[in-house]
């Protein structure tokens, strides 16, 4: 492998086995090494990445770090054989974000201030405090909606009525044991 960096870091040129690099920072850059291929134009305004490993790949597009899209692709997406369906994410930071999970659940949020992916960590624990609204829809048709930083929540399932709560149950309607009930002051009213 051979790299030339003159004048560093503005011009970098390299060649080698499964390696190629052309950087004329900040105007244009290209790098291919192993399973990674990365290109940028007018850094940091536009960047494209593609990572490949075997028959799987992950393509990412970034536009002025406020917009990015990620589309992993499996060559043989077949749930019956243990291969999950393709998933994707899109973010217009910090206003909007959406992602499609491997199980087919689609999650959308308005006000999405995290610039990194962390759906099972910080987003799940503290997301209600910064999201103006969110909605998830599962493949079985179940929908969950949260509005106004968690003050209003609703859930609906196909063939059933819609449940909703304000302030976590201060007031709301729900179905429990096949009976439709009202909640007030965090208690169920009625039989």
Features:
18 strands; 191 residues; mainly beta; 18-stranded antiparallel sheet; 1 helix
**How many extended strands?**
18
How much helix, percentage-wise, in residues?
Answer: under 10%
Strand content: over 45%
Class computed from helices, strands and strand pairing: mainly beta
Low-pLDDT residue intervals, each spanning 5 or more residues: none
Radius of gyration (Å): 23 Å
Folded structure, characterized:
The chain has 191 residues and is an all-beta fold. The protein has one helix spanning 122-126, and strands at residues 2-5, 11-16, 19-24, 28-33, 36-41, 46-53, 56-63, 67-74, 88-92, 96-100, 106-110, 133-137, 143-147, 152-156, 163-166, 171-176, 179-184, 187-189. It has an 18-stranded antiparallel sheet, with no helix packed on it. The protein is elongated, with a radius of gyration of 23 Å. The protein starts with a strand and ends with a strand.
């Amino acid at each position: 492998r051979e790299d030339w960096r003159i004048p560093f870091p503005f011009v970098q040129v390299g060649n080698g086995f499964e390696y190629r690099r052309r950087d004329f920072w900040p105007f244009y850059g290209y790098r291919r090494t192993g399973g990674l291929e990365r290109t940028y134009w007018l850094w940091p305004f536009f960047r494209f990445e593609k990572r490949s490993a075997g028959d799987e790949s992950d393509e990412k597009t970034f536009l002025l770090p406020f917009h990015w899209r990620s589309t992993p692709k499996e060559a043989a997406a077949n749930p019956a054989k243990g291969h999950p369906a393709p998933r994707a994410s899109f973010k217009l930071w910090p206003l909007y974000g959406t992602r499609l999970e491997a199980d087919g659940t689609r999650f959308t949020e308005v006000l999405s201030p995290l610039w990194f992916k962390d759906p099972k960590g910080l987003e799940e624990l503290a997301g209600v405090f910064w999201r103006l609204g969110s909605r998830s829809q599962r493949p079985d048709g179940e929908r969950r909606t949260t509005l106004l930083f968690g003050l209003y929540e609703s859930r609906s399932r196909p063939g059933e009525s819609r449940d909703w709560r304000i302030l976590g149950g201060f007031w709301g309607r729900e179905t429990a044991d096949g009976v439709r009930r009202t909640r007030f002051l965090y208690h169920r009213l009625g039989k």
